[in-house]
From TrEMBL:
PANTHER family, A to Z: 2,5-DIAMINO-6-RIBOSYLAMINO-4(3H)-PYRIMIDINONE 5'-PHOSPHATE REDUCTASE (PTHR38011:SF11), DIHYDROFOLATE REDUCTASE FAMILY PROTEIN (AFU_ORTHOLOGUE AFUA_8G06820) (PTHR38011)
Domain of life: Bacteria
InterPro entries per the UniProt record, alphabetical: DHFR-like_dom_sf, RibDG_C, Riboflavin_Biosynth_HTPR
Annotated ranges, domain Bacterial bifunctional deaminase-reductase C-terminal: 2-183
The protein's name: Dihydrofolate reductase family protein
Amino acid sequence: MRKLTYYVAASLDGFIADPDGDFSFFVLEGDHLTALNEQHPETVPTAWREAAGIEGANKVFDTVLMGRGTYEMGLKTGTASPYRHLRQYVFSTGYSGELGEGVELVRTDPIAKVRELKHEDGGLGIWLCGGGGLAGSLLPEIDELMIKLNPVVAGSGIPLFNREFAAAQFRLTAHDVYDNGVAVMTYERR
């Protein structure tokens, strides 16, 4: 069965973006980027892959899941199909705009769709790249958390998980700390 990984940047106080969805306050330069791009090259948007020196096949993921807010952040920069090298799904019941080439809109139950994707034969992993609300909905199906913990306190914004209280246990399986203060923490569901 395929695995769902929530791979996302977060502040020390647990926010993935400011209240408007902007994440430019995170550490966007440094030694962590080289390592992460090498380990997970498919998480670099298609338009930036060449500039980042990324070529070749995907290593870890072949599918990306986005909430509407995450997808719309790309649209603001003119990117309607941010990960053309992956199968792209946007989850929203209210989105009515145009979709980029290769982007599929899912209006139905996110858990049902993820279970369908997980049971596909073969393939690589499934990457949940953003959306605190979507992550909150999908928490029961998340197998792994990879949090790029940035050395910044946001104070408020979009939380890692936007949902009612429901404790879920994970265990730390790996961690890397970089010179610029970014720590990548990997957890698996208990």
